[in-house]
Design a protein that fits this description.
By secondary structure, this protein is α/β, with parallel strands linked by helices. It contains eleven helices and eleven strands.
Amino acid sequence: MSARTGTGKYEALLERCARLEPIPTAVAHPCDESALSGAVEAARLGLIKPILVGPAAKIAAVAAAAKLDLKPYEIVDAPHSHGSAEKAVSLVREGKAELLMKGSLHTDELMGAVVAREGGLRTARRISHVFVMDVPTYHKVLVVTDGAINIAPTLEDKADILRNAIDLVVSLGRDKPKVAILAAVETVTSKMPATLDAAALCKMADRGQITGAILDGPLAFDNAISAEAAKIKGITSEVAGDPDILLAPDLEAGNILAKQLTFLANADSAGLVLGAKVPIILTSRADSVRARIASCAVAMLAAHARRGTPAPKA
């Protein structure tokens, strides 16, 4: 997506990364200027130590055209985009990289290597996507999930999607993130299965099946974002007006919500895939360098949380 005017939330993330060690990162097929310059700029800012995986001659040609110095970085030759994805994943499995970053290849090529039964990066968790958004009209970073991977998640899928998002937000320095579970209405009705899932997820949290966050739902979007709207409707909620995470009922709703925030509210959006053995920096091939840098900053904090490094407080 195009570069936008930020509100300082991403810059605050970068400040919290400043005293942390850069993370070795396998960058799969950085074969266009945006992907390569994003990795190089993230390295310059001390976020990652990139291992550039792809056709070496093509990477060198892109660097020459963009006047980028690649001498400080390791390049691992791979014949094509599919091979780049497989090799980047193998570097993670070998412990040579703690993050995986998408370059200029198609998402399905990278994710195919990630979810492969042999040699992939699966865990017991469901893999899910988060948009980490800097919305000018909202007072803190907002996570929207899942708008890119799980098309019609079941209740159990949503529980894992939430666990992934909660772990991420905790790694960003929030001790007890607030989760709004979205639906079209705030009442529970069998006519809208999303409301039943929301109620069940809240009860799962009560029973300790989902931990580390404060959940409320179902909440319509207005009640989730506006404490005043919730008050008018007689909703008493710790989450209303202050959520860190918005759980969408399905992929279409999550994707539309994130893109509305981007194009109608001038939000910046970073993208990560969670639930694999390492966080995956998943940006669009059309994303700005700023969006790639923000994604690297979030992923770096998540990687340090996996190491046990204390998270800088928000």
